[in-house]
Amino acid sequence: MSEQAMTSPNKHPQGPVLVVGSGLAGWSLVREFRKLDAETPVLMVTADAGDFYAKPALSNAFAQNKQPEQLVTTPAERMVSNLGVTLLQRTRVESIDVQAQEISTSKGTFGYRQLVLATGAQAIRLPLQGDAAEAVLSVNSLEDYAAFRAQLMPQARVLIMGAGLIGCEFANDLALGGYAVQVVDPNAAPLAALLPEAASVQLRQALSDLGVRWHWQTTVKAVHKQGDAYAVELSNGQIQTVDLVLSAVGLRADTALAQRAGLDVERGVLVNAQLKTSADHVYALGDNTQYASASAGGVSRTLPYVMPIMAAAKALAQTLAGKATDVVFPLMPVAVKTPALPLVVAAPAPDVAGEWQAREQGIWQFISNTHVRGFVLSGKQTARRAEQSKCVAI
Length: 394
Ligand SMILES: Cc1cc2nc3c(=O)[nH]c(=O)nc-3n(C[C@H](O)[C@H](O)[C@H](O)COP(=O)(O)OP(=O)(O)OC[C@H]3O[C@@H](n4cnc5c(N)ncnc54)[C@H](O)[C@@H]3O)c2cc1C
Hints:
The protein is an alpha/beta fold. It has helices at residues 3-6, 24-36, 68-71, 76-83, 142-151, 165-176, 197-209, 256-260, 306-320, 385-391, and strands at 17-20, 42-45, 52-53, 72-74, 86-88, 93-97, 102-105, 108-111, 114-117, 121-123, 157-161, 180-185, 213-216, 220-226, 229-234, 239-242, 244-247, 251-253, 269-271, 282-284, 289-296, 299-302, 334-336, 343-346, 355-360, 363-368, 371-378. The chain has three domains: 3-121 and 251-320, FAD/NAD(P)-binding domain (3-Layer(bba) Sandwich); 125-247, FAD/NAD(P)-binding domain; 342-391, 2-Layer Sandwich (Enolase-like, domain 1), CATH 3.30.390.120. The protein contains ten helices and 27 strands. Flavin-adenine dinucleotide (FAD) binds at residues 20-26, 45-48, 55-56, 58-59, 92-93, 118-121, 139-140, 166, 254, 257, 286-287, 304-307, 309, 334, 337.
Protein backbone atom coordinates (compact mmCIF):
# COMPACT_ATOMS: atom_id res chain seq x y z
CA MET A 1 0.00 0.00 0.00
CA SER A 2 1.35 3.45 -0.85
CA GLU A 3 2.05 6.09 1.84
CA GLN A 4 -0.82 8.14 0.41
CA ALA A 5 -3.31 5.27 0.65
CA MET A 6 -2.38 4.61 4.28
CA THR A 7 -3.01 8.23 5.32
CA SER A 8 -6.28 8.83 7.18
CA PRO A 9 -8.68 11.40 5.69
CA ASN A 10 -8.04 14.98 6.76
CA LYS A 11 -10.69 15.97 9.32
CA HIS A 12 -9.92 19.68 9.05
CA PRO A 13 -9.08 20.34 5.40
CA GLN A 14 -9.87 24.04 5.90
CA GLY A 15 -8.11 24.27 9.28
CA PRO A 16 -4.75 25.97 9.76
CA VAL A 17 -1.25 24.63 9.52
CA LEU A 18 -0.59 24.65 13.26
CA VAL A 19 2.99 25.07 14.48
CA VAL A 20 3.94 24.39 18.11
CA GLY A 21 7.06 26.34 19.11
CA SER A 22 8.59 29.64 17.98
CA GLY A 23 12.29 28.79 18.03
CA LEU A 24 14.47 28.68 14.92
CA ALA A 25 12.64 25.55 13.78
CA GLY A 26 9.10 26.94 14.12
CA TRP A 27 9.82 30.33 12.55
CA SER A 28 12.09 28.96 9.79
CA LEU A 29 9.37 26.51 8.76
CA VAL A 30 6.74 29.27 8.62
CA ARG A 31 9.05 31.55 6.65
CA GLU A 32 9.75 28.81 4.08
CA PHE A 33 6.07 27.86 3.91
CA ARG A 34 4.99 31.43 3.23
CA LYS A 35 7.35 31.59 0.23
CA LEU A 36 5.23 28.81 -1.29
CA ASP A 37 1.76 29.51 0.09
CA ALA A 38 0.54 32.95 1.11
CA GLU A 39 -3.09 31.89 1.64
CA THR A 40 -3.38 28.90 3.97
CA PRO A 41 -4.00 30.09 7.54
CA VAL A 42 -1.05 29.45 9.89
CA LEU A 43 -1.51 29.34 13.66
CA MET A 44 1.58 29.30 15.85
CA VAL A 45 1.26 28.39 19.53
CA THR A 46 4.28 28.97 21.73
CA ALA A 47 5.10 28.76 25.41
CA ASP A 48 7.37 31.83 25.19
CA ALA A 49 7.03 35.39 23.84
CA GLY A 50 7.56 34.36 20.21
CA ASP A 51 10.30 36.93 19.49
CA PHE A 52 12.73 35.81 16.80
CA TYR A 53 16.34 35.54 17.94
CA ALA A 54 19.35 33.44 17.01
CA LYS A 55 19.85 31.06 19.91
CA PRO A 56 23.59 30.56 19.12
CA ALA A 57 24.09 34.21 20.10
CA LEU A 58 23.34 33.30 23.73
CA SER A 59 26.85 31.91 24.15
CA ASN A 60 28.72 34.90 22.76
CA ALA A 61 26.74 37.81 24.16
CA PHE A 62 28.30 38.26 27.62
CA ALA A 63 31.60 39.61 26.29
CA GLN A 64 29.65 42.26 24.38
CA ASN A 65 27.53 42.96 27.45
CA LYS A 66 24.34 42.54 25.42
CA GLN A 67 20.95 42.97 27.04
CA PRO A 68 18.41 40.21 26.22
CA GLU A 69 16.33 42.69 24.15
CA GLN A 70 19.37 43.38 21.97
CA LEU A 71 19.46 39.71 20.96
CA VAL A 72 15.95 39.88 19.50
CA THR A 73 16.39 40.31 15.77
CA THR A 74 12.65 40.55 14.96
CA PRO A 75 9.98 41.08 17.64
CA ALA A 76 7.00 38.71 17.60
CA GLU A 77 4.55 41.38 16.37
CA ARG A 78 6.71 42.04 13.30
CA MET A 79 7.08 38.31 12.56
CA VAL A 80 3.28 38.05 12.71
CA SER A 81 2.71 40.91 10.26
CA ASN A 82 5.60 39.94 7.95
CA LEU A 83 4.46 36.33 7.64
CA GLY A 84 0.69 36.72 8.02
CA VAL A 85 0.25 34.26 10.88
CA THR A 86 -1.81 34.13 14.06
CA LEU A 87 0.37 33.78 17.15
CA LEU A 88 -0.72 32.58 20.57
CA GLN A 89 2.10 33.73 22.88
CA ARG A 90 2.86 32.31 26.32
CA THR A 91 0.49 29.44 25.65
CA ARG A 92 1.54 25.89 26.34
CA VAL A 93 0.06 23.07 24.29
CA GLU A 94 -1.06 20.54 26.88
CA SER A 95 -2.19 17.67 24.68
CA ILE A 96 -2.84 16.52 21.13
CA ASP A 97 -5.72 14.38 19.95
CA VAL A 98 -4.31 12.91 16.75
CA GLN A 99 -7.62 11.21 15.83
CA ALA A 100 -9.69 14.39 16.16
CA GLN A 101 -6.77 16.50 14.78
CA GLU A 102 -6.97 18.93 17.69
CA ILE A 103 -4.65 20.41 20.28
CA SER A 104 -5.65 21.57 23.77
CA THR A 105 -4.19 24.66 25.41
CA SER A 106 -5.06 26.88 28.36
CA LYS A 107 -6.67 29.20 25.78
CA GLY A 108 -8.88 26.55 24.22
CA THR A 109 -8.93 23.74 21.69
CA PHE A 110 -7.78 24.22 18.08
CA GLY A 111 -8.17 21.96 15.07
CA TYR A 112 -5.46 21.58 12.46
CA ARG A 113 -5.12 20.37 8.89
CA GLN A 114 -1.41 19.71 9.52
CA LEU A 115 0.43 19.95 12.81
CA VAL A 116 4.16 20.70 13.15
CA LEU A 117 5.94 19.98 16.43
CA ALA A 118 8.95 22.29 16.89
CA THR A 119 9.25 22.05 20.67
CA GLY A 120 13.07 22.08 20.80
CA ALA A 121 15.20 20.69 23.62
CA GLN A 122 15.51 21.12 27.37
CA ALA A 123 18.73 21.59 29.30
CA ILE A 124 19.67 18.39 31.14
CA ARG A 125 19.63 18.83 34.93
CA LEU A 126 22.01 16.51 36.75
CA PRO A 127 20.92 15.43 40.23
CA LEU A 128 23.09 17.34 42.73
CA GLN A 129 23.31 17.38 46.49
CA GLY A 130 23.46 20.47 48.69
CA ASP A 131 21.08 23.20 49.85
CA ALA A 132 21.82 25.33 46.77
CA ALA A 133 21.48 22.64 44.09
CA GLU A 134 18.44 24.49 42.75
CA ALA A 135 20.50 27.64 42.26
CA VAL A 136 22.42 26.06 39.37
CA LEU A 137 21.40 27.82 36.14
CA SER A 138 21.43 26.84 32.49
CA VAL A 139 21.08 29.09 29.44
CA ASN A 140 18.89 27.63 26.70
CA SER A 141 16.50 30.51 25.97
CA LEU A 142 16.30 34.31 26.06
CA GLU A 143 14.55 34.09 29.45
CA ASP A 144 17.40 31.93 30.81
CA TYR A 145 19.92 34.43 29.46
CA ALA A 146 18.07 37.29 31.17
CA ALA A 147 17.93 35.38 34.47
CA PHE A 148 21.65 34.54 34.34
CA ARG A 149 22.63 38.12 33.46
CA ALA A 150 20.49 39.49 36.28
CA GLN A 151 22.57 37.51 38.78
CA LEU A 152 25.96 38.10 37.13
CA MET A 153 27.73 40.89 39.02
CA PRO A 154 30.88 42.47 37.47
CA GLN A 155 33.92 40.20 37.80
CA ALA A 156 31.80 37.41 39.27
CA ARG A 157 33.36 33.97 39.79
CA VAL A 158 31.52 31.48 37.55
CA LEU A 159 31.86 27.71 37.62
CA ILE A 160 30.71 25.94 34.43
CA MET A 161 29.70 22.29 34.51
CA GLY A 162 30.73 20.70 31.19
CA ALA A 163 33.55 21.33 28.69
CA GLY A 164 31.51 20.43 25.61
CA LEU A 165 30.57 22.78 22.79
CA ILE A 166 28.31 25.06 24.80
CA GLY A 167 30.42 24.93 27.99
CA CYS A 168 33.57 25.97 26.08
CA GLU A 169 31.72 28.77 24.28
CA PHE A 170 30.41 30.16 27.57
CA ALA A 171 33.87 29.79 29.15
CA ASN A 172 35.44 31.84 26.35
CA ASP A 173 32.68 34.45 26.35
CA LEU A 174 32.54 34.93 30.11
CA ALA A 175 36.34 35.08 30.37
CA LEU A 176 36.36 37.80 27.68
CA GLY A 177 33.65 39.59 29.64
CA GLY A 178 35.99 39.87 32.64
CA TYR A 179 34.55 37.06 34.76
CA ALA A 180 36.67 34.50 36.65
CA VAL A 181 35.81 31.19 34.98
CA GLN A 182 36.38 27.60 36.11
CA VAL A 183 35.21 24.55 34.16
CA VAL A 184 34.55 21.08 35.58
CA ASP A 185 34.36 18.03 33.29
CA PRO A 186 34.62 14.25 33.72
CA ASN A 187 36.80 13.98 30.59
CA ALA A 188 40.49 14.85 30.40
CA ALA A 189 40.18 17.65 27.81
CA PRO A 190 37.67 20.07 26.24
CA LEU A 191 35.35 18.84 23.48
CA ALA A 192 36.81 15.39 24.10
CA ALA A 193 34.05 13.61 22.19
CA LEU A 194 34.40 15.77 19.08
CA LEU A 195 38.04 16.73 18.54
CA PRO A 196 41.32 14.94 17.83
CA GLU A 197 43.49 15.14 20.93
CA ALA A 198 45.92 17.70 19.47
CA ALA A 199 43.08 20.13 18.64
CA SER A 200 41.63 19.65 22.10
CA VAL A 201 45.03 20.48 23.63
CA GLN A 202 45.21 23.68 21.55
CA LEU A 203 41.75 24.74 22.70
CA ARG A 204 42.58 24.05 26.34
CA GLN A 205 45.74 26.15 26.06
CA ALA A 206 43.98 29.02 24.29
CA LEU A 207 41.27 29.20 26.96
CA SER A 208 43.83 28.81 29.78
CA ASP A 209 45.67 31.81 28.30
CA LEU A 210 42.45 33.79 28.79
CA GLY A 211 42.43 32.81 32.46
CA VAL A 212 40.03 29.83 32.40
CA ARG A 213 40.82 27.27 35.15
CA TRP A 214 40.04 23.58 34.58
CA HIS A 215 39.07 20.67 36.82
CA TRP A 216 39.44 17.50 34.74
CA GLN A 217 38.20 13.98 35.40
CA THR A 218 35.88 15.09 38.14
CA THR A 219 32.25 16.17 38.49
CA VAL A 220 30.19 18.53 40.63
CA LYS A 221 28.79 16.58 43.54
CA ALA A 222 27.05 19.24 45.64
CA VAL A 223 26.36 22.97 45.73
CA HIS A 224 26.05 24.60 49.17
CA LYS A 225 25.05 28.14 50.10
CA GLN A 226 28.00 30.04 51.64
CA GLY A 227 26.94 33.56 52.59
CA ASP A 228 26.31 35.43 49.31
CA ALA A 229 28.32 32.82 47.38
CA TYR A 230 28.28 29.06 46.75
CA ALA A 231 30.67 26.34 47.88
CA VAL A 232 30.86 23.80 45.06
CA GLU A 233 31.98 20.36 46.17
CA LEU A 234 33.68 18.26 43.49
CA SER A 235 33.79 14.48 43.47
CA ASN A 236 37.61 14.67 43.81
CA GLY A 237 37.08 16.27 47.24
CA GLN A 238 37.98 19.87 46.25
CA ILE A 239 35.72 22.78 47.24
CA GLN A 240 35.53 25.86 45.01
CA THR A 241 33.87 29.07 46.18
CA VAL A 242 32.07 30.87 43.35
CA ASP A 243 29.27 33.37 42.77
CA LEU A 244 27.35 31.44 40.10
CA VAL A 245 27.16 27.89 38.77
CA LEU A 246 26.21 27.36 35.12
CA SER A 247 25.29 23.89 33.91
CA ALA A 248 26.22 23.09 30.30
CA VAL A 249 26.05 19.31 30.41
CA GLY A 250 23.85 18.91 27.34
CA LEU A 251 20.34 19.16 26.00
CA ARG A 252 17.63 16.55 25.71
CA ALA A 253 14.95 16.61 22.98
CA ASP A 254 11.64 17.87 24.39
CA THR A 255 9.40 14.97 23.48
CA ALA A 256 6.90 15.21 26.36
CA LEU A 257 3.96 16.44 24.30
CA ALA A 258 4.58 13.92 21.51
CA GLN A 259 4.89 11.11 24.02
CA ARG A 260 1.62 12.03 25.69
CA ALA A 261 -0.03 11.97 22.26
CA GLY A 262 1.21 8.41 21.69
CA LEU A 263 3.66 9.28 18.90
CA ASP A 264 6.72 7.09 18.37
CA VAL A 265 9.61 8.59 20.33
CA GLU A 266 13.17 7.45 21.07
CA ARG A 267 15.86 10.09 21.73
CA GLY A 268 13.63 12.47 19.77
CA VAL A 269 10.30 12.41 17.99
CA LEU A 270 10.77 9.86 15.21
CA VAL A 271 10.12 11.15 11.70
CA ASN A 272 10.45 9.65 8.22
CA ALA A 273 12.32 11.27 5.35
CA GLN A 274 9.37 13.63 4.80
CA LEU A 275 9.48 14.62 8.49
CA LYS A 276 6.16 12.91 9.20
CA THR A 277 5.77 11.42 12.67
CA SER A 278 4.01 8.12 13.37
CA ALA A 279 0.63 9.99 13.30
CA ASP A 280 -1.06 11.17 10.13
CA HIS A 281 -0.92 14.93 9.47
CA VAL A 282 1.65 15.44 12.26
CA TYR A 283 5.25 16.48 11.44
CA ALA A 284 8.31 17.49 13.46
CA LEU A 285 11.60 19.31 12.97
CA GLY A 286 14.31 20.92 15.08
CA ASP A 287 16.00 19.91 18.33
CA ASN A 288 13.06 17.68 19.37
CA THR A 289 13.36 15.47 16.28
CA GLN A 290 15.12 12.21 15.47
CA TYR A 291 15.59 12.15 11.70
CA ALA A 292 15.41 8.98 9.57
CA SER A 293 17.25 11.02 6.91
CA ALA A 294 20.21 11.29 9.27
CA SER A 295 20.52 7.58 9.94
CA ALA A 296 23.93 6.03 10.16
CA GLY A 297 24.35 2.26 10.43
CA GLY A 298 20.57 1.92 10.62
CA VAL A 299 20.32 4.28 13.64
CA SER A 300 18.53 7.58 13.14
CA ARG A 301 19.88 10.68 14.86
CA THR A 302 18.93 13.95 16.45
CA LEU A 303 20.75 16.93 14.87
CA PRO A 304 20.53 19.79 17.38
CA TYR A 305 22.11 22.50 15.21
CA VAL A 306 21.03 25.37 13.00
CA MET A 307 21.99 24.01 9.56
CA PRO A 308 19.82 20.86 9.81
CA ILE A 309 16.87 23.06 10.80
CA MET A 310 17.29 25.13 7.65
CA ALA A 311 17.37 22.01 5.43
CA ALA A 312 14.40 20.46 7.28
CA ALA A 313 12.34 23.68 7.12
CA LYS A 314 12.76 23.96 3.34
CA ALA A 315 11.77 20.33 2.72
CA LEU A 316 8.83 20.36 5.13
CA ALA A 317 7.48 23.61 3.68
CA GLN A 318 7.31 21.89 0.27
CA THR A 319 5.50 18.89 1.74
CA LEU A 320 2.99 21.04 3.61
CA ALA A 321 2.38 23.04 0.43
CA GLY A 322 1.45 19.84 -1.39
CA LYS A 323 4.71 18.59 -2.93
CA ALA A 324 5.92 15.65 -0.82
CA THR A 325 9.66 16.20 -0.39
CA ASP A 326 12.36 14.19 1.38
CA VAL A 327 14.85 16.16 3.47
CA VAL A 328 18.41 15.51 2.37
CA PHE A 329 21.04 16.74 4.79
CA PRO A 330 24.26 18.03 3.24
CA LEU A 331 27.57 17.95 5.12
CA MET A 332 26.97 20.36 8.01
CA PRO A 333 30.18 21.58 9.67
CA VAL A 334 29.65 23.41 12.98
CA ALA A 335 31.60 26.56 13.83
CA VAL A 336 32.62 26.56 17.49
CA LYS A 337 32.35 30.13 18.83
CA THR A 338 35.58 30.16 20.81
CA PRO A 339 37.41 33.25 19.49
CA ALA A 340 40.45 32.30 21.60
CA LEU A 341 40.81 29.44 19.10
CA PRO A 342 38.10 29.40 16.40
CA LEU A 343 37.22 25.86 15.31
CA VAL A 344 35.14 24.27 12.56
CA VAL A 345 34.09 20.68 13.16
CA ALA A 346 32.60 18.32 10.58
CA ALA A 347 32.17 15.24 12.76
CA PRO A 348 32.11 11.78 11.15
CA ALA A 349 28.87 9.81 11.52
CA PRO A 350 28.87 7.94 14.86
CA ASP A 351 29.17 4.47 13.32
CA VAL A 352 32.17 5.27 11.09
CA ALA A 353 35.37 3.55 12.21
CA GLY A 354 38.64 5.33 11.49
CA GLU A 355 41.18 7.71 12.96
CA TRP A 356 42.08 11.37 13.04
CA GLN A 357 45.17 12.31 11.02
CA ALA A 358 46.93 15.68 11.09
CA ARG A 359 47.18 17.09 7.55
CA GLU A 360 48.75 20.51 8.06
CA GLN A 361 49.07 22.89 10.97
CA GLY A 362 45.43 23.34 12.14
CA ILE A 363 43.86 20.72 9.82
CA TRP A 364 42.83 17.22 10.86
CA GLN A 365 40.93 14.73 8.73
CA PHE A 366 39.04 11.68 9.92
CA ILE A 367 40.14 8.81 7.68
CA SER A 368 38.14 5.64 7.25
CA ASN A 369 39.33 3.09 4.65
CA THR A 370 41.31 5.81 2.83
CA HIS A 371 38.19 8.06 2.63
CA VAL A 372 37.89 11.41 4.41
CA ARG A 373 34.78 11.22 6.61
CA GLY A 374 35.16 14.37 8.69
CA PHE A 375 37.52 17.21 9.50
CA VAL A 376 38.50 19.74 12.13
CA LEU A 377 39.98 23.15 11.33
CA SER A 378 41.48 25.49 13.90
CA GLY A 379 42.59 29.12 13.93
CA LYS A 380 43.18 30.68 10.47
CA GLN A 381 42.51 27.33 8.78
CA THR A 382 38.79 27.75 9.58
CA ALA A 383 38.68 29.88 6.40
CA ARG A 384 39.26 26.65 4.41
CA ARG A 385 35.92 25.12 5.39
CA ALA A 386 34.49 25.05 1.83
CA GLU A 387 37.64 23.49 0.38
CA GLN A 388 37.80 20.82 3.11
CA SER A 389 34.08 20.05 2.77
CA LYS A 390 34.72 19.04 -0.84
CA CYS A 391 37.19 16.36 0.33
CA VAL A 392 34.59 14.57 2.45
CA ALA A 393 32.93 11.43 1.10
CA ILE A 394 29.39 11.34 2.52
C1 LIG B 1 23.91 28.43 24.05
C2 LIG B 1 23.67 27.74 22.74
C3 LIG B 1 24.53 27.97 21.68
C4 LIG B 1 24.35 27.33 20.46
N1 LIG B 1 25.23 27.56 19.44
C5 LIG B 1 25.03 26.96 18.24
C6 LIG B 1 25.91 27.20 17.14
O1 LIG B 1 26.89 27.96 17.25
N2 LIG B 1 25.67 26.60 15.94
C7 LIG B 1 24.60 25.75 15.77
O2 LIG B 1 24.40 25.22 14.67
N3 LIG B 1 23.74 25.49 16.81
C8 LIG B 1 23.93 26.08 18.02
N4 LIG B 1 23.06 25.83 19.06
C9 LIG B 1 21.88 24.95 18.79
C10 LIG B 1 20.76 25.74 18.08
O3 LIG B 1 20.63 27.00 18.68
C11 LIG B 1 19.47 24.93 18.17
O4 LIG B 1 19.65 23.77 17.36
C12 LIG B 1 18.21 25.66 17.70
O5 LIG B 1 18.13 26.97 18.17
C13 LIG B 1 16.98 24.86 18.13
O6 LIG B 1 15.82 25.48 17.68
P1 LIG B 1 14.38 24.80 17.93
O7 LIG B 1 13.39 25.73 17.31
O8 LIG B 1 14.40 23.38 17.51
O9 LIG B 1 14.20 24.76 19.52
P2 LIG B 1 13.98 25.90 20.61
O10 LIG B 1 14.73 27.11 20.30
O11 LIG B 1 14.25 25.21 21.92
O12 LIG B 1 12.43 26.27 20.52
C14 LIG B 1 11.42 25.46 21.07
C15 LIG B 1 10.13 26.24 21.10
O13 LIG B 1 9.08 25.36 21.51
C16 LIG B 1 8.28 26.01 22.48
N5 LIG B 1 7.57 24.94 23.22
C17 LIG B 1 8.11 23.83 23.81
N6 LIG B 1 7.12 23.08 24.33
C18 LIG B 1 5.94 23.70 24.07
C19 LIG B 1 4.58 23.42 24.35
N7 LIG B 1 4.19 22.31 24.99
N8 LIG B 1 3.63 24.32 23.95
C20 LIG B 1 3.99 25.44 23.28
N9 LIG B 1 5.27 25.74 22.97
C21 LIG B 1 6.24 24.90 23.36
C22 LIG B 1 9.27 26.86 23.24
O14 LIG B 1 8.64 27.88 23.96
C23 LIG B 1 10.12 27.39 22.08
O15 LIG B 1 9.48 28.49 21.47
C24 LIG B 1 23.24 26.44 20.29
C25 LIG B 1 22.37 26.20 21.37
C26 LIG B 1 22.58 26.84 22.58
C27 LIG B 1 21.65 26.57 23.74
